[in-house]
Design a protein that fits this description.
The chain has helices at 2-35, 57-64, 71-80. The protein is mainly α. The structure holds zinc ion. Zinc ion (ZN) binds at residues 42, 44-45, 47, 60, 64-65.
Length: 84
């Protein structure tokens, strides 16, 4: 019966390894969450851009705030974080 027992042990070990991998993955996901920069928010209306950085600001600004300031003028300020 010793063989069967060691097989079970190996199985348990393998299962433990899988669990460890799982934890590591979750840990890495947490790390990525911390490293990911904060989402950009439209300074005019508070709209949160869901893509990377300012993805979508072009269309958003042109359709909603073009009358406040033209997108061409506002974009360099937004990118530099100087539009408030
Ligand atoms: Zn907006």
């Amino acid at each position: 019966m010793t063989d069967q027992k060691s097989q079970l042990d190996r199985f348990k070990e393998a299962a433990r390894e899988l669990e460890t991998d799982d934890d590591e993955e979750r840990f890495n996901e947490c790390l990525r969450g911390i490293v990911t920069p904060a989402k950009k928010v439209c300074p005019e209306c508070g709209h949160v851009f869901k893509g990377n950085g300012w993805d979508g600001i072009d269309a958003h600004w042109r359709s909603k705030h073009e009358d406040v300031m033209s997108y061409e003028k506002v974009w360099p300020l937004l990118r530099a974080g100087r539009y408030h």
